[in-house]
Specification:
The complex is a heterodimer of chains A (about 260) and B (about 425). Chain A has one domain. Chain A starts with a helix and ends with a helix. With about 260 residues, chain A is mostly helical. By secondary structure, chain B is an alpha/beta fold. Chain B has 2 domains: about 240 residues, 3-Layer(aba) Sandwich (Rossmann fold), CATH 3.40.50; about 130 residues, abc- transporter (atp binding component) like domain (Coagulation Factor XIII, Chain A, domain 1). Chain B is built from 9 helices and 20 strands. A 6-stranded mixed sheet of chain B has the order 5-6-7-3-8-9, with helices on both faces. In chain B, strands 12-20-19-15-16 form a 5-stranded mixed sheet, with no helix packed on it. A 4-stranded antiparallel sheet of chain B has the order 10-11-13-18, with no helix packed on it. The chains are: A mainly alpha (about 260), B alpha/beta (about 425). At the A-B interface, α2, α5 and α13 of A face α4 of B.
Chain lengths: ~260, ~425
Amino acid sequence: MGQWVSEIWHSREILYFLAWRDVKVRYKQAALGVAWAVLQPLFTMITFAFFFGKLAGIPSDGVPYPLFSYSALVLWTYFSVTLSQVGNSLVANSSLITKIYFPRVLLPAAAAFGGLLDLVVSSVFLIGMLLYYHVTPRWTMLLTPIFVGQTVLLVMGVGMLLAALNVRYRDVKYTIPFLTQIGLFVTPIIYPVTFLPHRFQGWLALNPMTGVIQGFRACLFGGHVDWDVLGSSWIVTLSLLLIGTLHFRSTERVFADIV
Amino acid sequence: MTESITVENLSKRYELGALRQETQLRDQLARLLRTPFGKRAPKEVLWALRDVSFTVEQGEVVGIIGRNGAGKSTLLKILSKITFPTSGTVRARGRVAALLEVGAGFHEELTGRENIFLNGSIMGMKKKEVDAKLEAIVEFSGMQRFIDTPIKRYSSGMRSRLGFAVAAHLDPDVLIVDEVLAVGDAVFQKKCISAMHDLRGGGRTVLFVSHNLAAVENLCSRGMWIAQGRVQLDGPMREVIEAYMGSFASADSASKALTTADGRQGTGEIRFTRVEFRSTDGDLQTVTRCGKSLVIRLHYRANEPIERPAFAFTMYTELGTLVTDTGTWLHGLDIPLVPAGDGYLDLEIDSLNLMPGRYYFSLKLDSCVETRLYDALEHAVYLDVEEAPLYGQSRRIDSRLGLVFFPQRWRLDGIGSGAEIDVSPAASG
């Protein structure tokens, strides 16, 4: 394991170039370029604000509904878009895997880091919204990167597992969109956790993104922090990271033979 | 001398069942339901490499030859850590760079310059190194004008030039090269060969796999012939090439039955059965002479009606230099349908303008309409071409004088009046 980590550290420039390639290619020949990073969560937010906030009257913990949903969508969009890229990273780069040796984990890692640029851009828009809605600045806002980091770890954990499985079973490719679609509803993005009947709230805490979104919102808007949810979210995240890493490590030797 | 590469008892097994597409979870579940407690159906096993051991000293340049499917590529893939051996060990000293495909990892949408950084980095160069060598790489490739153009607008030749330019500047301790010189124009091939010569001079260890025996012989001092996953022969390059070529010579050249040929590829709905060389009078020939006419008759057997097949063959010299690649498709011939059964095609050559020597034929049968290979045989048959008094006199003509000759005439009118020129054929020497 130590050797593995040191080899990855040694090859960190490859990670940089692969991530740079992903970002560069994503917006090449796209007229709106990196604006897509904002447009996607923005239009989702507008749709949610209209149907769920206005028509259905779903509460939002005293925060304006557009801000309430957009703040969650910033992280969720990163999670869902990047997870599908990480999950497909090995298969999409099969020509590299069968022709050149380098630490294979750099491919999912590059996809995970490449997605961060979009997150930064959509976060800038979030700051604009915070100013527009006159949200009082508070020092806890400085803690938000912790939850961004946790999302990256979660994407890596689940992503490595899915990417390695995808090499053998292409079913995974069809599973990811389906997983993230369900995830959108079992994560408190459109609604606050308190909106659910009490007996369901505990189940929701098993979803690590619940803690991430709750913690992220608490940092931005203040309010009650549920430490149990945060704790279980971290436990699940780190467990998934461990499972993902172990599975990846145990299968990476055969990637080139079966991809 | 220090050992640069040490390979011990290397074996690699592929399970053919795994190679076939059992990659849907559904298939596995279905199998589990059919035989929930029974053991799995025995998988067909292929040993791509079997018990291969050798050492390479630092600075040695080793050429690896063998037929398609002999295990050469598997060996290179294991040496470059792309895939892992089933058993055995490999140790390599220093930085290993593998060029299994020129420009592997190039991205279509990125420019030439961007791809140099991407490719260089994946191949193991630091960004600083690429920065420092960028100018030299661009110059080597000859792509100065197109360096900021996306690679997708490059021709395949341009791509491989850029790819080799990056590789030539890797500065590795061990370089592993697979068949990359097959591409690019003659000038660039020369450049590649001289770049590899330079590497050799610099004390670098080079492993070179190629079908171009002339290039291998030129570059490598030591040769390794791999057949059916084992090292058949390891020794001086020249001897290895001779033994390798000798292994094809068991063929009866005039009319070889091809039904049992090994190393055959393709799906087999239609296959070549025999190749005959005939004179235009219809006589079977084992040997022909320079400049004579020749009929090449390709016999086939079709197990079912085949729509729009394309028959083709390539001809090589003894050293593996391609002489010609020709076929029905290339000639614009569209054969609408070949009915099931046996038949043949004739290729008539008016004048076989080849220098004396032995020429090998590889045969290929594929489809004009879909990407499907029916049959392919490497070095299936050979034809001996004997010398003939080509130019109307008896000077000795042999393969040292090139590959081909043209029907030609020397005109001496311009030498100036008064010169006494003997126009009668020169006496034989």
